[in-house]
Design brief:
By secondary structure, this protein is α/β, with parallel strands linked by helices. Helices cover 32% and strands 21% of the residues.
């Protein structure tokens, strides 16, 4: 396990360094199991959650998130189905949002168990469109957008153009119907009432689930936070070509404050990293992180106007591969846009078509 960073030392991990083995689950509380599956990215895993349930008199499980559609994930699911479900079916699949590691295998699991998919309307339709698109999460429009923000390396742009089938390769299909989840909805799962909390900035309409407790006497509050609150890393908050003038960072920071009314001792079940307590402190850390990054960006733009590509070396202190660079470019644009919309930067487009941002002065 990597060493804890200073922020993590301010959080508490009730299960220490314990992790579920691939193809198995770790029981956290009665009726709540933790599944961890591998991903072929720098962020090399996703957490999935099995919640004991009963629907229309049928006993089984509600599954929260799925993993991408890859052979190894299907193989791990076969092991979990055989060993961890107590011979019971999956009754419904909840997807917190549209990103491939969360919804990729929904079509396969829903078909296998004749189970409905539950997710927000915005993310369902975005995922369905992307899974059918030849230019989803890549292609010419993505390359042109990144080029307009200063990414001019021909090799990188060629690779972005070539990855036009990125999303469909991980999410080849979506179930043909779904059950819509809305902010403030309450869903009864296995005797627990789970409250839906919407979040923006990371995905179009992310849904987290919070439970105050259960009639059984387990009164500990639980938050399935998806990607909105992660313990070790900051959530990716990006602007991309589909909404090229978005203010994603403002939306994200406003969204995580929706969790502040939850009790400080809430057990947070994140999509990446380990279950933890210390929710309020983690939200404060995320605000501090982005406040510091915004200050660095503003300082860098106080001299000559800067593009998003030029901001990568300010925001990211490590070498990035292409996959990481696309996320990093989106984050760089998001930070510049946050300052631009707040009236602290002005935007201009140079003769080559690249957007650059400069600090506002008294004469602006």
């Amino acid at each position: 396990m990597p060493a804890m960073n200073p922020n993590e030392l301010e959080l508490h991990y009730p299960w220490g360094d314990a992790l579920p083995e691939l193809g198995s689950a770790l029981t956290l509380k009665p009726g709540i199991k933790w599944v961890r599956m591998g991903l072929p990215f720098a962020l090399n895993h996703i957490n999935l959650w099995l919640l004991r349930d009963a629907i229309d008199g049928r006993e089984g499980w509600t599954l929260v998130d799925c993993c991408i559609d890859q052979t190894s994930a299907r193989e791990q699911w076969e092991q979990i189905i055989a060993a961890e479900l107590d011979g019971l079916p999956i009754l419904r699949v909840v997807a917190t949002h549209m990103h491939p590691d969360h919804v990729g295998l929904a079509h396969w699991l829903c078909a296998r168990f004749n189970a409905p998919l539950w997710m927000s309307a915005t993310d369902y339709n975005a995922a369905r469109l992307a899974s059918q698109s030849a230019t989803a999460m890549g292609g010419e429009r993505s390359a042109a957008f990144f080029a307009s923000h200063g990414l001019t390396d021909p090799d990188s742009l060629a690779k972005i153009r070539a990855r036009s089938g990125y999303y469909p390769s991980l999410v080849p299909a979506l179930p043909s119907s779904y059950r819509r989840m809305l902010h403030d909805d309450t869903i009864l799962i296995g005797g627990r009432a789970w409250h839906c909390i919407v979040g923006y900035g990371h995905a179009p309409e992310h849904i987290a689930l919070h439970s105050q407790g259960a009639p059984s006497g387990d009164l500990d509050p639980v938050l399935i936070s998806g990607d909105m609150v992660l313990p070790r890393i900051s959530t990716n908050v990006s602007v991309y070509e589909l909404e090229p003038e978005g203010d994603a960072l403002k939306l994200f920071l406003e969204s995580i404050d929706r969790f502040l009314p939850l009790p400080q001792h809430t057990l947070v079940l994140p999509s990446h990293g380990k279950p933890f307590t210390g929710l309020h402190r983690r939200i404060a850390q995320l605000h501090e992180h982005h406040r510091d990054r915004l200050a660095e960006v503003l300082e860098a733009c106080a001299g000559e106007p800067q593009s998003a590509a030029e901001m990568l070396q300010v925001l990211f202190k490590r070498e990035l591969d292409l996959h990481q660079t696309t996320f990093a470019m989106g984050e760089s644009v998001a930070h510049l846009h946050a300052l631009w919309f707040a009236g602290k930067l002005r935007r201009e487009q140079d003769a080559s078509g690249v957007y650059r941002f400069a600090a506002m002065t008294s004469t602006d």
